[in-house]
Specification:
This protein is mostly beta strands and 228 residues long. The chain has 1 helix and 15 strands. The protein has one helix at residues 36-44, and strands spanning 22-25, 29-31, 46-51, 54-56, 74-80, 83-89, 93-97, 100-107, 110-120, 125-134, 136-138, 144-154, 160-179, 182-197, 222-225. It has a 7-stranded antiparallel β-sheet, with helices on one face.
């Protein structure tokens, strides 16, 4: 753990060097929020963050934030084809639930992400994965249960005939995790969609597929904080 020079900062009397903005959550979810103390430490003591080839190290010492409040803000990404990693740091904020105006949660500004997609089949099928590590707020994304539906075309006479089947499924998993002593909300969204065709058209013999999903990356996010 890197060691920083000690310093004293009066700040705004709230643990930070500026007033925090407030986000109000309505349809989104509040997951694994950090304490006030953890949020303060994550802001002042952020040293670096990395996720596979994405690595962000701003190069400042904590005392530099006294005069330059955004000295440790920024991001980095690393892409290969449709696969992308990113790591970033932004300013923390307060969070409130729309249905509870009394309780104040906090969100640090550190985040990690991974996205990947792969074309499958011959009819524009695709499977994809999104993995996000954020603070406190996660979008309310509903899973889509497995389905296999018949695809039909309409004839000029008003009738219809089948030409294939569409298989879809989306899995969503949300959990609280700890990275470098800092709480994160982790969301994993895996999707599959593909089409099989009748042969011959109208026979209804297209098969329902068994979905397969892209795996999470083998590497894990890494967070380093300054020590004194």
């Amino acid at each position: 753990m890197p060691t920083a020079d000690s310093f004293t900062a009066l700040g705004k009397g709230n643990g930070f060097n500026r007033c925090l903005s407030t986000s109000t959550v309505s349809s989104d979810k509040i997951i694994n929020p950090p304490t006030f103390e953890q949020t303060v430490a994550a802001y002042w003591n952020f040293h670096s963050a990395s996720f596979s080839g994405a690595s962000f190290e701003p190069g400042n010492e904590p005392r530099d934030l006294i005069c330059t409040e955004n000295a440790n803000r920024g991001s980095d990404s690393d892409s290969s084809g449709d696969e992308r990693f990113f790591a970033s740091n932004s300013f923390p904020q307060k969070v409130k639930d729309e249905g509870d105006d009394e309780t104040i949660y906090y969100a640090h500004g550190i985040s990690f992400g991974y996205v990947n997609r792969e074309d499958v089949g011959v009819q524009g099928g695709v499977k994809s994965i999104d993995v996000y590590y954020t603070s406190t707020i996660t979008p309310d994304i509903d899973p889509i249960p497995y389905s296999c539906t018949v695809l039909r075309n309409t004839t000029s006479g008003g009738g219809s005939y089948s030409y294939g089947k569409l298989t879809t499924e989306k899995k969503v998993a949300v959990s609280g995790v700890d990275i470098g002593g800092v709480p994160f909300a982790k969301m994993v969204v895996q999707s599959f969609t593909d089409v099989t065709l009748d042969d011959p058209v109208g026979s209804g013999n297209a098969t329902c597929l068994t979905p397969s999903f892209l795996p999470e990356p083998s590497s894990q996010p890494s967070l380093t904080l300054w020590d004194y």
